[in-house]
Every structure is written in C-alpha cells, then in structure tokens.
C-alpha cells in the first residue's frame, strides 16, 4: 500500500488484512458480553487498507469573547485494495461508503458522480457544506477529505509522482515483526514537527488557565519534541493477554545517551507500597528509577537544552511547581530522600482524588521538602497506625506510616491507610499481577469505563443499551537503544480508540 501513498505523507497507517484486524477486536470476552451478535467480517478478507495524512489544518471556533475551541483537521486519504473487479470496487464505493457517509453526515447528503482518466469519482456533500471524496481505479478505492489528494494518489498509481515506498526509514521499520502485525503506523520527522505544534496547543490549553502559561507551553513544548524526536513507529499485534500496541520513539543520539545513563531502573522491585492502594482504584503508575533525583535533573536539563536559552532557564526555575499538587515544595530535596520506587494513584476518572506513596530515607529531611502549609510542629492525628498532618485548609494530607509517606487529599489518604490495615488492597487483585511483573522504568494500570460501549456501537449492535463494561489496560515504558518504547496491552487497543472517534 505504500506504493500508492504520496511521498510527502507525514503519518501513515496500514492493515494488511482488514478482516483479521476487525476479528481481533470482537473475540474478547467484553465484546461478546455487550454485543447482540458477533459481526461477520469475511467480506473484508484480504482487503488491505492504508491511511496517509499529508498535513493538518487548524481552525478556531469562538464561543465567547474569552473562550474558544481549537479544531485540528488532518488532510487524509484512505486507500483500500479490494482485490476485486473494478465494477465490484465501484459498487462498494457508491453503496457501502455512501451508506457510511449518510450515517455520519445525515440522510440529506448529496452525491455527485464523475469520470476522468479511467477513474470513477464520487463527491458527497452534507447540508452544512462538509465534503468527502472518493475515486475508484481498477480494484483500488481512495477516500479523502481533500480532493487534491485523490489526484495525487492517482498520479502515484500511474507512476507520474513518487510514492511513500522510497522512504527508507519507514521500510526498515515496516519489516520488523511485520508478519504478525495487525496494523502498522509511522510518523516521519516532519510529521513529528507538525504534530508537535498541535500537541503544544492542546497541552497548553489543559495545563494552564493563564494566557502567559499557555503561551509558554505552546511555544516551548514543540521545540523540545522537534529537537529530540526523529520518528515514531506503531505496531499492533494480538497476544494471549489481549491487543498489544507498541509505540517506539526514536530520539537523536545525544538524547538517547542521556536517558540511557540517567533513567536506569533499580534491580529490586519492591511491592510494599502497593499495599496502600485500595482494590477499587481507577489507575496507578509505578516509577522504578535507580536514582530518582538524577533522573529528574537529566530530564529537566534535556528539555532546557532543546529549546532557546531563555525558555531553558525558565523550565529549570519553574520545574518545582510541577509537583505542587502533591504538596512538594522542594522537588530535589524530596527526591533525594526517597527510595527508587515512586507510586502514584488516582481514585476517580478526573484524577481529583489522588495520592503518591514513597519509601522514606530520612523522615525529618523529607518533612522540610514539603509545603509550609503543613505545620509539622503541631501534634499529628493518629489513625490506622499512621501519623497524619494536614494543611490548614484541609485540602492536603501527609501520612507517615512504617517507612512510607503518603501524600494526597485527606479522603484518599485515609482510604489508602485503611486498605493497608484491612488487607483489601490492590495487591489482592488480578490486575496487580500484570502491574507487578513489569521491570520497566514506568508502568501504568488504568480502567476505562466508556470505550467498550462505543466500540460495540460502531462494529455491532448492543445487547442491552443500559449495560456498561469497564475494561483495563497496562502500559509499560522502557528505555531502548534508539529511544524509548511504550507497550500497552488492552482488550481493544489503539485500533479500538480510533474506531471510537467514528461513534462520536
């Protein structure tokens, strides 16, 4: 399929057997419990599909004088080789794709037909002016939201323009475990640059409500990503544990050298901190660093070095504020007095109720690293064998128990202490086994309460519209020879996440 995609493609996704990919999403227990029937995807057998993104368009929809919504529109073309006669491919484009477009745009969508240079063209226009374009050439169906992309792809097919196949970096990545891949994705260095700009704006809007803070993040984050990241490769396979997604991020030589040296993992993997997590928590992340302080410093210096001089100094100066939600005022002093394992957990989907659990080296020194709003000179409250102090506004608690410190909102801290005392904690759950066996520098467990229902509604019909299912996933982050790799195992994978967008 790379032979049919334009050479200037920034992001490329592909599945070599659409039936095999869709079957993998519908074989798990959750889908079978929620769906009225398991769909038959045999009609998609051996159909290859590639999606090429050649650029991004940003638009702003103003809600009020002070608030607006940013929309990011990718310019894409989907390419499907049906391996069928052209009349069959034309029928699929006109009827099946046309039906899909009506479901998305509404029944009042208008379709126009045309033919040029032995290719059939279809244009669908919605009542509000949105358009989708399709072209059929031989057994190949092209679908795009930009008409010029159809002409470009047809030129590639005729040999009049260069294809993506000439990209040697993509070709090398494509051959790795390619026989077992359900899907493959690639982001070029130029694609990273453009996505970095979008990521900067998106992160800025969520990270700060202040205009100056948003402007700083939107400017600096893209610089850091562009200057450190070379390319991104995504592969999806089916394993006994579920759908396994691997996101491999290649960094420049200097960045790799820094993180390999400073983000080394500790050999021991202690689990006692997890005994303070309730069994019904929403998600947790365990960081396993040989030296947390050196790891923290190296990331800050790496970020500072890959932006301009003034912004670099600001990153270092204001880095302490990143851990303020946990009541940590002096990050370096704090990290110098904790063990290699740092555990964070959230008890709700929004993360408003959360805790951090660390093993303490020196209790008195670590007290000095915490916010001055906690007055350690007053007698502590003694509950669940712990000494507990709170801020005056009772927003934050610090509990010392055994050799552990638990930081978080008062309600969550008490739940954690109770979980340790009554034994009904995360270590007794099946999910803990997947969480604990990892030796990665970071491992995350989290629950998802919405995805399964949306995916079922896209691929089939729900057995009971009122029935909901909660799924879980585990993500590991490993340092590799080229950069780092994030491996995530879940029931529906990233492909399921992509399908969710159709339902929305």
Helix and strand layout, with pairings?
Elements: E1 11-15, H1 18-25, H2 29-34, E2 48-62, E3 68-81, H3 86-105, E4 110-116, E5 119-125, E6 131-137, E7 140-144, H4 147-157, H5 168-174, E8 183-187, H6 189-207, H7 211-228, E9 229-239, E10 242-251, H8 253-262, E11 283-288, H9 292-305, H10 309-318, H11 331-336, E12 338-346, E13 354-360, H12 363-368, E14 381-383, E15 386-390, E16 397-401, E17 404-408, H13 410-422, H14 430-436, E18 442-448, H15 451-459, E19 471-479, E20 483-490, H16 493-503
Antiparallel strand pairs: 1-2, 1-8, 2-3, 3-7, 4-5, 5-6, 6-7, 8-9, 9-10, 10-20, 11-12, 11-18, 12-13, 13-17, 14-15, 15-16, 16-17, 18-19, 19-20
Helix pairs in contact: 6-7, 8-9, 9-10, 15-16
Describe the protein.
- The chain has helices spanning 18-25, 29-34, 86-105, 147-157, 168-174, 189-207, 211-228, 253-262, 292-305, 309-318, 331-336, 363-368, 410-422, 430-436, 451-459, 493-503; strands at 11-15, 48-62, 68-81, 110-116, 119-125, 131-137, 140-144, 183-187, 229-239, 242-251, 283-288, 338-346, 354-360, 381-383, 386-390, 397-401, 404-408, 442-448, 471-479, 483-490.
- With 504 residues, it is α+β, with helices and mostly antiparallel strands.
- It has a 20-stranded antiparallel beta sheet, with helices on both faces.
- A hairpin with a 2-residue loop joins strand 4 and strand 5 (119-125).
- Helix 9 packs antiparallel against helix 10 and helix 15 crosses helix 16 (493-503).
- The protein is globular, with a radius of gyration of 26 Å.
- 36% of the residues are buried.
- The model has no long low-confidence stretch (mean pLDDT 88).
